[in-house]
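<derive_structure_tokens>
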Amino acid sequence: MKNDIYYNEEFISSNIELLPHKNRAFKYGDALFETILCFNKQPLYLQSHIERLKKSMCLLQMEWNTKLEVDALNNTINDLLTKNDVNITRVRLTVFRIDGGHYLPTTNTVSYVIENSPFELQKNIKKGMHLGVFNEIKKPISKYSNIKSTSALMYVMASIYKQQNNFDECLILNQNNDISECITSNIFVVKNNIIYTPPLEDACVAGVMRSQFFNWAVKNKIEIIQKSMNLNFLLNADEVFLTNTLIGFKWVQSFDKKEYSNTYFLKLSTDLKKEFIYF
């Protein structure tokens, strides 16, 4: 199978390095990325991904590139997946300021890379996840907290901790010791048949599936309360589930010594499967 990538309007072999000494993403983490699930060669929720990317680029004072508009990007991704002969895959779009300067860039013009990697869609919702908590680094609360940046050492270290301790996912806490998110997911908590989730002000990434679930809940007249939550709130919850664009929706079976049910989640998934492909 071929494994080309798309770099600055050209298909190139993924074996060719993008010259780290000329790449601000490599040198300073001066970059953003989107991870996009593609199903039958079509990127899902592309409009939401681009809206988030555009908002984040504006925040970081990066100049918008019209090649990243939805229609143009959709065609490029489709061409890439056709060239690489894959139907279901994850696509990563990385946008970075072009080379020049040191900490202070000489320009706000961006380059971008689009690449795909193998992915198998998991539709088994019977198995719950075992959740841990990563305490070594607390996520700062700022206007930059909601973006998906390549400056991701906290998530790298949390992932190492997760593997070393045999967890399926780990909680990330913010500077106030409230729950922000998980390593790769947003978190939703069910208590007395009411759904709660941390607000963006608590430093969670503005997840695309999080926003899709909010939109679905509004249409289906299901209330989701955005609320700051500490670990005690989680330990007293009835159910917990996680969302991101790759896993869709996954329920949590245990955290610490707490075992959760999934009655509400299974009932919810019956309605969710009418709109989402993850079931």
